[in-house]
Write a structure and sequence with these properties.
There is one protein chain. With about 170 residues, this protein is mostly helical. About 80% of the residues lie in helices and about 0% in strands. It folds into 2 domains: about 5-65, lambda repressor-like DNA-binding domains (434 Repressor (Amino-terminal Domain)), CATH 1.10.260.40; about 75-169. It contains 8 helices and no strands. The chain is elongated, with a radius of gyration of 24 Å. The two termini are about 40 Å apart.
């Protein structure tokens, strides 16, 4: 796939519709800078945006990815498969976002518990000292897990774990 060719094709489609980069950006919900990058071949649109772009310009996804119009219609089954992959990808992103949100809420709760006990001056008194230690451990653990998840490094850890499990079997 030639990004520059795709970019030229997107620019051609936009000009055929007599739409500015700003107008197209507003329609697609992206910045006009993103449109410019696509048209210059510097980047490609996100996978889930391909369907919106194809719908808007009344072309097939295959035509966009090839960077040119084609005479034969794209196989409907292939397009349906692409839609399913996009739905799966969006579901994964949503699940990931919920996990991150939960982790950070737990960290905030731990920090709140620590702050209340500290403000009351009870950090050196038992059982509050133990509660403070657990709360700070929760905050530290959540920050570590949040950093791993947000850097997507956790996916590499999971993959390594799965490889180990397959070797053991």
């Amino acid at each position: 796939m030639d990004q520059r060719k795709v970019g030229r094709f997107l620019k051609e489609l936009r000009k055929e519709k007599s739409v500015t980069q700003e107008q197209l950006a507003e329609i697609l919900g992206v910045s006009n800078r993103s449109i410019s990058r696509w048209e210059n071949g510097a980047t490609m649109p996100d996978f889930d945006l391909l369907f919106l772009i194809a719908e808007y310009f009344e072309v097939e996804i295959g035509e966009i990815l090839n960077g040119e119009r084609k005479e034969i219609d794209m196989d409907i089954q292939t397009e349906e498969t692409l839609r399913k992959v996009t739905d799966y990808h969006n579901t994964e992103k949503e699940f990931f976002s919920k996990k991150i949100c939960g982790v950070f809420i737990a960290g905030i709760v731990g920090m709140f518990i620590y702050m209340v006990i500290d403000l009351l001056g009870l950090t050196a008194v038992q059982p509050y000292e133990s509660i403070v230690n657990v709360a700070l451990g929760l905050v530290l653990g959540d920050l570590l897990v949040g950093a791993l998840y947000s850097s997507r490094y956790i996916a590499k850890v999971k993959a390594a774990k799965m490889r180990l499990l397959h070797r053991v079997k």
